[in-house]
Amino acid sequence: MDSITISAPDDWHLHFRDGDLLSETVAATARCFKRAIVMPNLQPPVTDAALAMAYRERILQASPTPDFGPLMTLYLTQQTTTQIIDEVDLAYIPAAKLYPAGATTNSQQGVASIEHLYPVFERMSERGMLLLIHGEVTDADVDIFDREKKFIDDYLVPLKQRFPALKTVFEHITTTDAVKFVNGSDASVAATITPQHLLLNRNDLLVGGIRPHNYCLPVLKRNSHQTSLREAVRSGSNKFFLGTDSAPHLQHLKENDCGCAGCYSAWGALELYTQVFDDLDSLDKLEGFASHYGADFYGLPRNTQKITLERSNWVMPELIELPNGDKIVPFFAGQELSWKLNNS
Q1: Can you tell me the distance from the alpha carbon of 36 to that of 50, in angstroms, rounded to the nearest whole number?
Q2: Which residue numbers are catalytic?
């Protein structure tokens, strides 16, 4: 097969950042994705409806196309109230994001006590607002490679027992344990999977020297976990769908002794996913994963437009230069990809 045509896809988890970065990040996503769930971990974070809608307007102003639809999320903190949830227009802000405090970039103001937010989760469940979870504990004595499993056991299982109707997306899953949890849960639970966790494992982060541009959180795991993620997407299950977690950081902030976590995959994300499905001899499963299952889970209509990818070799740029001269190193920089979006 030398080309594949699918319904236009959506990205159900990404980071645009703000300010000068928007002209780059929004365009990179809007080139192929029709909608995107936008993460709220700005500085300061997007903690209420007014902040979310103002951020949405900045994204729309940066979009090169009028038919791109950003879908906003709220950043949950210890101070989030049911009143804040009641003020949300679900058409524009369909979800709220739970970051355990200190788990990842700009999560310091996240949730320290999940049980404290049980009234908020109840109101979200009543309103049909989705809960998006960064599923890792932050305890210093827990090995970083075990933090996803411990979060499942200590927090996610009790949460779903308490709120069985709360639609929950386990974001950017990385382990066999997470795949088993999602597969064993009812239809109220789904998960996003990133290109980096499908393509790489912890060898790609650590062997031959630390590779900062492959550093993300949750961190890459051993190859057996990578295999479980690949099997999950190859299965065609509607419980797993596309979420890039594309997260730009300037080159000098990634390449230092305390490098930022995040892979900026937007420049080639869809092509990379296509490469994964091709490698798995499962191109027939790509459309569901990229274009159908996320929209279905969010209760939104599927996109009617079509896009075509062609088998064509190209090389990811080594650097992306911003208008102000700053630089970003994209995910898979300098490497060859075997599929390309047909923009004609």
Answers
A1: 19
A2: 245
